[in-house]
Design brief:
The protein has 222 residues and is mainly α. It has a domain of 154 residues. It is 86% helix and 0% strand. It has 7 helices and no strands. The chain is rod-shaped and about 95 Å long. Keywords: Cell cycle, Cell division, Cell inner membrane, Cell membrane, Membrane, Transmembrane, Transmembrane helix. Part of the Tol-Pal system, which plays a role in outer membrane invagination during cell division and is important for maintaining outer membrane integrity. This is Tol-Pal system protein TolQ. Belongs to the ExbB/TolQ family.
Length: 222
């Protein structure tokens, strides 16, 4: 009998509670990997978009022309580009109706801060699930292990002479739950730490751009 078949047999012969624990861990692991791959693509795109926009913004092009180019696109702007679009739009609107430079600048900064908050919320989407999966999966697996071992020792009370061969299958199937808990937790923890760091760096870039753009707007209206 092969090792793989032995593991499959142990899972198939596990108690109902242990099977449910394993099923929960498989679902957690599957959804975690979906988030990991999706988040990887989202963050890579966000960084590319930020790099491309910064190249355009600091290339010396007029802000009016840059805004017209962005606003003419059919899709909604995101990231740094979106912060620029809403900020410049509000700046132009307020500038037409007021000569108070502080009022105009504060209005533009306010809408940019709102846009930044939305971007932060979007970037951090699904990260809490990875954190939760990484912290709880080992305990879920441990629960299955404890339950399986408890059943194994309880079964020994019905026999006159206990042997290792009688206990081993129950303990083995129980330990599989612990292994599955670790298998679900480790990738989730690694991904959460990595993506949290990337999100923080992107947020810092957005915030730095917001401050630099605010300074440019202030000079234009002064």
């Amino acid at each position: 009998m092969t090792a793989d078949l032995s593991i499959i047999t142990l899972i198939a012969e596990a108690s109902l509670i242990v099977k449910l624990v394993m099923l929960v861990l498989v679902m957690i692991s599957f959804y975690s990997w979906l988030i990991i791959f999706r988040k990887r693509g989202e963050l890579a795109k966000a960084k590319r978009d930020a790099d491309n926009f910064e190249d355009k913004f600091w290339s010396g092009n007029e802000l009016n022309r840059l805004y017209e180019d962005i606003s003419s696109r059919p899709h909604t702007s995101r990231g740094m580009e979106g912060i620029f679009e809403v900020g410049f739009k509000e700046f132009v609107r307020l500038k037409k109706s007021s000569t108070d430079s502080n009022y105009v600048l504060e209005g533009a900064q306010r809408v940019m801060r709102i846009s930044l908050a939305r971007e932060i919320d979007q970037l951090e989407t699904s990260l809490p699930f990875l954190a939760t999966a990484g912290s709880t999966s080992p305990y879920i697996g441990l629960f299955g292990t404890v339950w399986g071992i408890m059943n194994s020792f309880r079964a020994l009370g019905n026999v006159q002479q206990a042997t290792l061969s009688m206990v081993a299958p129950g303990i083995s199937e129980a330990l599989i739950a612990t292994a599955m808990g670790l298998f679900a937790a480790i990738p989730a923890v690694i991904a959460y730490n990595r993506y949290s760091n990337e999100v923080e760096r992107l947020i810092n870039r957005y915030d730095t751009f917001l401050e630099e753009f605010s300074s440019i707007l202030q000079r234009q209206h002064s």
